[in-house]
Specification:
about 0% strand, 4 helices, about 120 residues, mainly alpha, 2 domains, about 85% helix
């Protein structure tokens, strides 16, 4: 019980420290991400199985990111179309943009299906 409380105190202080790095320093985002990655690896190594109790935080973060990706891409495409102004320019560039978007989506689907079929991941 005592180690669990200590783990959560360390975890929360790590979150606060990373927030402080972003709010109070001029550290770039990529550097903060690397620092958080290293801190997470160290905490996972030190606390081992106890670190699995905070897995829900990472799962929640990944779900939030998934929830934002599609509306963000759609909004970007709509904003780009609206800012074009001239409908004649929109035709060629718009068709190329939609074609490229569909092509990259097709590749992502094919890669996902092939890797899913080969490795047969088990979702817990």
């Amino acid at each position: 019980m005592g180690l669990t409380i200590f783990y959560w105190i360390v975890l929360l202080s790590t979150f606060v420290g990373i927030y402080y790095l972003g709010a109070k320093t001029d550290l770039k985002l990529w550097a903060r991400v690397i620092i958080a990655l290293v801190a997470g690896a160290i905490l996972g190594f030190i606390f081992g199985d106890l670190a699995a109790s905070s897995k829900w935080i990472g799962d929640l973060f990944v779900r939030f990111i998934r929830m934002l990706v599609v509306p963000l891409i759609f909004t970007s495409l709509v904003a780009g179309v609206v800012s074009m102004g001239d409908p004649k320019r929109l035709g060629s560039i718009g068709v190329k943009t939609i074609a490229l978007y569909m092509l990259t989506t097709l590749f992502a689907i094919i890669i996902g299906l092939v890797l899913g079929t080969l490795f047969k991941p088990v979702w817990v």
